[in-house]
Design goal:
The protein is mainly alpha-helical and 131 residues long. Helices cover 82% and strands 0% of the residues. It is elongated and about 50 Å long. Bound molecules: protoporphyrin IX containing FE. The site of protoporphyrin IX containing FE has 25 residues, from helix 1, helix 2, helix 3 and helix 4.
Length: 131
């Protein structure tokens, strides 16, 4: 794997960490605290940077199964973070509506599926002796 791909795979782990802290906080408390917002927002930044690095480092271009899954999961988390900001701005630490609570879980699950396909990709490249 090229240096830029390795950097992308390292950065995406920070996205996982930050998203996980933000989403677990929301799922447990049913509230979007300032702390949760901070973690989600920094998570999105890491995600965008990691995706950019992967596209630049990719040997296959952006339109692969992993690439399309990656884009859609990034879009889902971007939307989730903007909903979280909107809720926090309008209602502060008030309980989140049920749809937002459920959407958070769905978007995060989808993102983790994309993440797992990335991990499988690397393992299969290693097994094939290409990485
Ligand atoms: C949800 C998080 C992720 C997003 C948004 C994402 C996004 C992308 C995109 C758009 C590409 C370019 C298309 C392609 O080559 O398939 C790509 C490539 C790649 N990604 Fe990810 N990815 C994610 C997670 C991961 C993880 C966790 C790993 C490894 C542990 C990984 C490893 C790779 C590799 C090795 C490539 C290059 C594949 C090649 O050149 O054949 N990705 N990623």
């Amino acid at each position: 794997m090229s240096g830029i791909l390795i950097a992308g795979t390292i950065i995406v782990n920070f996205a996982l960490l930050f998203y996980t802290i933000g989403i677990v906080s929301e799922q447990r408390s049913h509230r979007v605290t300032r702390r949760a917002l901070l973690f989600l927002t920094v998570g999105v930044i890491f995600d965008v940077v990691a995706t950019g690095f992967m596209i630049v480092g990719s040997s296959r271009g952006p339109f692969t199964a992993h690439g399309v899954l990656g884009f859609s999961s990034l879009a889902a988390m971007l939307l989730e973070t903007s909903f979280a900001w909107r809720h926090h701005r309008r209602s502060g630490d008030a309980l989140v509506p049920r749809w937002l609570h459920n959407y958070s879980r769905l978007a995060y699950t989808w993102w983790v599926v994309a993440y797992i396909t990335g991990a499988i990709l690397v393992m299969s490249k290693r097994a094939a002796g290409a990485g």
